[in-house]
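Archive entry: two folds, one per protein. Generate the first.
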Amino acid sequence: MNVQRFVPAGSAYPEQVSFDRFELGEILSVYGRFVAAGLWRDYGISCLKDRAVFAIFRRAAENPLYRVEKIPALRGKQGLYALFGPEGQVLKRGATLKGVLAPLERKLLHALD
């Protein structure tokens, strides 16, 4: 017996943008080094309809220090990924996640000196 599911066009589950396993691996690699250095303590992940956000916090009760966002609508224009600062300013945009995370890598090197 075959069972077929009927999914209406206006489904209750809207599509969401999310980070894949490899993207999270790259982000968490940088995040883990900052945690080991004692600079960051918490993070949050949001999967929204138009973007995925990885927010980095110094303490849980604060505004995020940095936000790494994946915005598919900007893939062809400014790049799929963006790094935002604490005031919402765009620090870096690009097509590769490694390039967007480069300013954070430099900050870690300066913090450890």
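Generate the second and append.
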Amino acid sequence: MVTEDRSSVATPTNLTEAAMASTLRVRIDQDACTGDGLCVQLAPAVFEFDVDGLAYVKGPDGQLRTKTGESVPVPLPLVDDVIAAADDCPGTCIYVQRPDGTLEAGPGV
């Protein structure tokens, strides 16, 4: 279920710098995205649909990252939700990476 609720509970925009300090980063391979929307449901502060019907990551500024391979930091309060999105994604297109580039979650893990 996709929600239109854009309150600070559904889409936290008031995260502190410490809350944004996760060392994990997440990106989506749009070529593999099915547009199912599970990620958008699980972590709407990190994932959002664009006009093409595919999910993209969005940064702390709320802007979608639409360039191929772009990643964003995973906010600490949302680490579990982002990892669940990567693990459960039917398109197997979400990659959660550690600073050294190894995968924490996603295809091949």
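Annotation attached to the second fold: The helical segments are 38-42, 79-88. The CA atoms of residues 29 and 49 lie 13 Å apart.
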